[in-house]
Specification:
This is Lipoprotein. Keywords: Signal. The protein has 6 helices and 9 strands. It has 227 residues and is of the alpha+beta class. The protein has one domain. The strands form 3 sheets. A 5-stranded mixed beta sheet has the order 3-4-9-7-6. Strands 1-8 form a two-stranded antiparallel ribbon. A two-stranded antiparallel sheet has the order 2-5. The longest helix is centred in the last third of the chain and has 13 residues.
Length: 227
């Protein structure tokens, strides 16, 4: 994991990156990387418990949803030293040297979330869904009570965390094969020089044969106090 990889030797392992949409929802993790965990913060500045004991987020569901879907996908702040794919002091090396003591700086629009098991060799994205889209695009959620019980709640947003190795992102075909079709399908403009903020195939219909991104967590249900 801590080996320094030169970008000119990277080949994107396409077949290892995806699974089919027909598969049940899974949580993928490599043997060297504990799967990421996303939970809702108990910080009273951001959330509170309602009378039913549910953790409610202060703010607007639609505002969060629209901000995320407009292109704010990477939860890591640009000032964090592991934000960049390549090292700032040597752009021929991947910025992937793991530091178990590092506390990631998270962007403000995700500050009501807790993130665990983030690691330097990986990049991350969050994508928001409403219920109908969630069922259409994420395998295995339609029969899960914790998801369908909020299907008619306008204050509910479902998020999924995606990740991939930075060595994948640094591959020469990542923009043409992954980012460009994702941006076209999602209607997102992106700067090819800033792959750290680029969209990935978050939904069905971007990759060939309806394949789906392999490394995802189970969806997390967010309930806001405003629509």
């Amino acid at each position: 994991m801590n080996k320094r990889h030169k970008t000119n030797s990277i080949i994107l392992p396409m077949l290892a990156t995806f699974l089919t949409m027909s598969a049940p929802i899974t949580v993928a993790a490599s043997c060297t990387h504990e799967k990421p965990v996303v939970t809702i913060s108990s910080n009273s500045n951001h959330t509170f418990l309602n009378e039913n004991g549910e953790r409610i987020i202060k703010g607007s569901a639609s505002e969060f949803f629209n901000t995320n879907r407009s292109g704010i996908f990477n939860p890591i702040d640009s000032s964090d030293r592991f934000y960049h794919i390549l090292r700032k002091d040597n752009n021929q090396l991947i910025n992937d040297v793991h530091d178990k003591n590092h506390k990631y700086k998270i962007k403000g629009n995700f500050d009501f979330l807790n993130f665990e098991n983030l690691s330097a060799p990986y990049s991350y994205r969050i994508y928001s869904f409403r219920y109908d889209e969630l069922v259409k695009n994420i395998p295995g959620v339609a029969t899960r009570k914790k998801y369908y019980e909020h299907r008619n709640n306008p204050k509910a947003v479902y998020i999924v965390l995606y990740w991939t190795l930075k060595t994948n992102e640094a591959a020469p075909n990542f923009v043409s094969d992954i980012i460009t079709p994702s941006a076209a399908r999602l209607g997102i403009q992106f700067n090819p020089e800033l792959k750290e903020e680029a969209p990935w195939p978050f939904v069905k219909g971007i990759l060939a044969n309806n394949n789906f991104w392999k490394n995802v967590i189970e969806p997390v249900v967010l309930i806001f106090d405003k629509e």
